[in-house]
Amino acid sequence: MKRVINSCIAVLLGVAVMSAVIVLCSENPSVSLAAFFLKPFSTRGYIRALFHKAGLFVCMALGASCALKTGMINLGGDGQIYAAGFVTALLLREYWGVGFLLQWSVALLCALSVAGILACVSGILKAWLATSEMITSFLLSTACVPLIDALIITVTRDPAGNLLATAPVHSHFILQQQTSLFGVPAVLTYASLVALAVGCFFSYTRVGYQFRICGKAPEFGRFVGFPVWATYVWGMVLSGALFGLTGFFSVVGLFGTCYVGFSVGMGYAALAHALIAHAHITVLVPLAFFFAWMETASEAAVLGAHLTVNVVLFLQAAIFLLISAQWSAPWNAVRRGARRVYRFLVTVFCFRGEKHRTRRRHALSVHDTHHRRSRWE
Predict the structure, then answer these.
(1) Higher pLDDT, 265 or 15
(2) What is residue 167's DSSP assignment?
(3) Among the CATH numbers 1.10.287, 1.10.10, 1.10.3470, 1.10.238, which is that of 2-322?
(4) Does pLDDT of 311 surpass 80?
(5) Could you tell me the pTM of the whole model?
(6) 371 CB neighbour count, 10 Å cutoff
(7) Closest C-alpha among 262, 254, 252 to residue 89
């Protein structure tokens, strides 16, 4: 319950901060607020883009949540998504003549492998040298981004004249026009199935149980004989592979190409998403629609209402600042104070005679028993 309260307060305050920024930075606040809150649902194209972004947010949040469940924090999401998208664009820009499904599967496997290897380096350094995975993953991501930028601009630039993107993906590999059950975009459907598989892995498999135990209590994991070092490595590999899946779906689903800097901010958005959900897989999918709505609404406000500030950044900042606050602490202090006042009143008014003393002891024992029971429940 405390986690739910903290998450709800962080989200509400983040939305309030974004609304305040829109009012302060816009020349016409009413038009900007209307564009922010209503325009994402105004047309079918906006709704379709919202569903596509929700699928990407599910994959991103799964990557961040898998790292959190194993006791790690993967800050290299931007670089891992970027590398996977770049590899996908290179492998799918032309048809090889071996079957579309086979080529699509090879590109997917390569994208997952590249991102998983980048994350695996941080896991190995954590397991063998006890280095911080946050620092190593962030540094590797920071090193990969300018390297891929240079490759896109020089070697793999679109020969048709686009200076900031690779050649577009072959039309047969694009998921943008593909739909699945009830008209839901294919990206969101595939991402939901992946979320279901990851949730079953952590909840109903022996290896997933070991991952969760070693992530929460590594000393206990070592005591019972679990390979904690393997948890670090494979947890980061799984996190990187899911970030790579995000890059793959970004190229074949939403963008159709790999352009310079398309993954900027995705890693931190995924971390904010996972922190709000407290790494609960079942919460990630519905929460993805909220984050997709926020990003779509911010773009609509910037384009339609001439807003010069990307307010999604303020949402992420508010979440990072507020998610760690213990908002239930004041309520617990009030409960403790009320309990002390109750004990004082019982002591004052039940002091005369053996009958009153017995009644006082009984009242205090019943109150303490109820408090202990409610505390454990």
Answers:
(1) 265
(2) P
(3) 1.10.3470
(4) no
(5) 0.79
(6) 13
(7) 252
